[in-house]
Amino acid sequence: MVESEDVRKIARLADIGIDENELTEFTDQCSRILTYFEMLDALPAGSGIDRGLINVFREDEITPSLSQEESLQNAASTENGYFKAPRVM
Amino acid sequence: MAKTLKYSCTDSINAFITTVSETLYEDGPLSGVTIGVKDNISTKGIETTCGSHILKGYIPPYDAHVITLLKASGAAIVGKTNMDEFGMGTTTENSSYGPTLNPHDTGRVPGGSSGGSAAAVAAKLCDMSIGSDTGGSIRCPAAFCGIVGLKPTYSRVSRFGLVAYANSLEQIGPMAPDVMGVSRLFSVLAGYDSRDSTSVDRPYTHTPDPSIDGLRIGLPSEFFGEGVDPTVAERVKEAVGVLESAGATAVPCTMPSMSHALAAYYVICTSEASSNLARFDGIRYGPGGDLRKSWHEEFSDRRKELFGKEVRRRIILGTFSLAAGYYGRYYHKAQTARQMVRDDFTRLFQDVDLIAGPTMPTIAFKLAEKSDPLQMYLSDILTVPANLAGVPAISVPCGKVDGMPVGLQLIGRHFEDEKVIDAAFAYEQEAN
Q: Which residue of B has its CA nearest to A88?
């Protein structure tokens, strides 16, 4: 069960904007879905997944990659080979 | 010697987001075969939107590994197929470019999320297609549209260039009108790629063999019980009967982990999605941003405007499941449930070679029938176990209910895609 304030907070953390007129709908839907998820809490904690996997590493060698032009080609706004983005601070 | 293929089609079912009017192809095992590619697979020089407005206009600067393989095989890529935005849906109605319609009944959905890929093959707009399957996204639309679709063993096909939604679950796979077509396409797609760190060197060189004498097929009661339309269950049992007459033995069994599989799947896929989709800021690719706003304000506004509701809902659910204070109750317990599914398969596969059941619990839904998200999620119950365990699964058409196709799902052991394909081929040969 979640309240609209929880959804508003989570949406802010995830940088997903929510309009005030959507908040009730999102809260209601998420609440029902999370209530469904709660059945999992009855399970033992377990030890996670046993996939029998090992990490795959490679030597730290330079290999062919995208050029700067190719990397920037889909950006709407660039300057001197950089992406232009809104200020963070 | 490269040849040119000119392509156009009357796409009245909205199967394609983009078509390629002229494409070059080489000699090879798939020379000149027309292929539709799901729009979450990167194609150099061809717009790749993932069914989302946030990637409108995005032209990948590189090919996915499977596209490199397809081009080398001589296949002609004729278009990018419609899909639920970022693969999030079971109907293709969550596309920002409008829903795809089911060619068998345009008042119904084609399934999803690879709905465009399935509908394009079913409507004969292309010879074959590729899709991706995170929780049933190849098998569901294959079943609803009456074609064959394979979700390979996890790691058998490179995910390099597949736009990530839930990495631990998804695989690219082949879709075609018949099992032989799926087998031909899979032989091109499977194999090792160093750019996908989960890739395993298990190429596929098999030719389908319909001799299944002695094959043991498990029928979990959960696949035929509550929530499954009895007429669909009946049709699938008849299909299993066809396999029995070809020499297979049906073995009743149970899969108790099914009770928690769907909840586990949705916790895991939304958690992985909330992380993966953080890269879509509209800045490095996409429409750009209002540089006068602050970062969080701009990022938040832009994602509200350009992501559909289902994508935003899943990011919220995933962020919630991973949040401090909830992680232990949701994400960690989902891993327990996932291991239970794997353990169930391991146990069952000591006694049987394959598991059979319906691909989907019903026939294709009517458009707008699944407007409630949780109701839509519940329809994935029969397809998600294979993704949670990473085992191969195929959907092959097995007749109709109310004029709509029904899919027989066959699930096998890890790396026994060949056996899954053989059984589907045997059914197809016996039934036709």
A: B295
What are the structural domains of chain B?
8-432 (3.90.1300.10)
**Contact residues on chain A for B337, CB-CB shorter than 8 A:** 40, 43
CB pairs under 8 A between A and B: 164
Whether B132 contacts B171, CB under 8 Å: yes
**Nearest chain B Cα to A71, which residue?**
B61
Query: Are the beta carbons of B339 and A15 separated by less than 8 Å?
Result: no
pLDDT in tens, B120-162: 999 999 999 999 999 999 999 999 999 999 999 999 999 999 9
- The answer to whether residue A76 is domain-embedded is no
With respect to residue A20, please indicate whether it lies within any of the assigned structural domains: yes
Inter-chain touch B286–A74, beta carbons under 8 Å: yes
Kindly list the catalytic residues of B.
Answer: 38, 113, 137
Question: Which residues constitute the domain of residue A16?
Answer: 4-42
Q: What do you get for the CA distance between the two ends of chain B, in Å? A: 38
ipTM score for this prediction: 0.94
User: With a threshold of 0.95, does the pTM exceed it?
Assistant: yes
Residues of B in contact with A63 (CB under 8 A): none
Strands B404-412 and B393-401: antiparallel
Q: Does A61 touch chain B (CB under 8 A)?
A: no
**Radius of gyration of chain B from its Cα atoms, rounded to whole angstroms:** 20
For B226-285, write each residue's pLDDT tens digit.
999 999 999 999 999 999 999 999 999 999 999 999 999 999 999 999 999 999 988 898
On whether residue A74 sits in a domain, the answer given is: no
Report how far residue B97's alpha carbon sits from residue B128's, in angstroms, rounded to the nearest whole number.
22
Helix (H, G, I), strand (E, B) or coil at B249: strand
Residue B296 has its nearest CB partner, among A15, A30, A39, at A15
